[in-house]
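I hope you will forgive my troubling you with a question about protein structure. The matter concerns a single protein, recorded as an amino acid sequence and a row of backbone structure tokens. Please examine both parts with care and let me know of anything in them that strikes you as inconsistent. Thank you for your consideration; the sequence and its tokens are set out here:
***
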Amino acid sequence: MTAFLQIQRLRKTYDDVVAIDHVSLDVRKGEFMTFLGPSGSGKSTTLYIVAGFQEPTEGRVLLDGKPLLSVAPNKRNIGMVFQRYTLFPHLTVGENVAFPLRVRGRPDAEIKAKVEKMLKLVHLSECRDRMPAQLSGGQQQRVAIARALAYDPPVLLMDEPLSALDKKLREEIQLELRRIHQETGVTILYVTHDQEEALRLSDRIAVFNKGCIEQVGTGEELYANPASRFVASFIGNSNFLPVKVMKNSGGRMNGVFPNGHEIASDALNPALAAGDEGALMIRPEQMRLSSLQSASGASGTSGTAGLPVTVRDITYLGDAMHYAVATPWQQEISIRMPAAHRHDSGIAIGAQALVDWDARDGRLFALA
């Protein structure tokens, strides 16, 4: 499928500082694409260039095959929603939504019908005549979304729009955003540093780091097959265990941990050879913790044959148990298991236990 929005080798520098470095990305029509990354990674800079708020040092942007950067920002017809709602405080909710239509000279009958449609879309029809100050933060943000969509923009840009809301309200608006996206089919570029929000909302995610895109994929692809140690650490929780590679061929890696404990894994990294130092990434929920009494040694697919650990902390999380354990080389790692596991009487703070995992679950990375 031909890309609807094409970002091609964008570069932005401020004197000697490189904000983004040859960022390229194809976005499909109707796609919810999220830019995810830490502060200063380049995600907002890329968004502002698409919006026309900043000029790139190099590169170009195409919208539906036509160059976009030569078009004045107010002529790009692109919707924008910010962290701050930027509603006009002296206008009613209905007048706020109508504003972009009025400046475009739309007929009054069309404006009235469109305002009704947009307020119904965001479930705020009853608030039409209220002032912004009479609304909650979540309601104000929904009005901002309705206003941005009122003139049927081909692309809607959203820069950390929910970060000022509390967790419960943020999750409610996330559900609203998913519904609105499904109902309108608008193409959305969404900036956030919240990985859970990105996973909840997106069709695909572009992971930014140090001005570059490290990987683009669905949430499931990024979580299951991270292309770099950074992506593995930023998407979900991870344990990185230091390992010396002894053999890395035939679809299997054999190595040893710092205490000499042998490890076998299906994780392969062609950049690492025998003798190299690497990091084996295991997700907390992929690990199994057993008391010494109940442990039965290596299983058929085990990658560890029972790594001995010391239990440092246990936290009950409702549906799960979180265990903080220390390896023989005193690295603390996290393990997450179903809450039913709390009945294993041999696992207590200060106790010795064994950790195991499936050899197919590890991912091998070079040391950072």
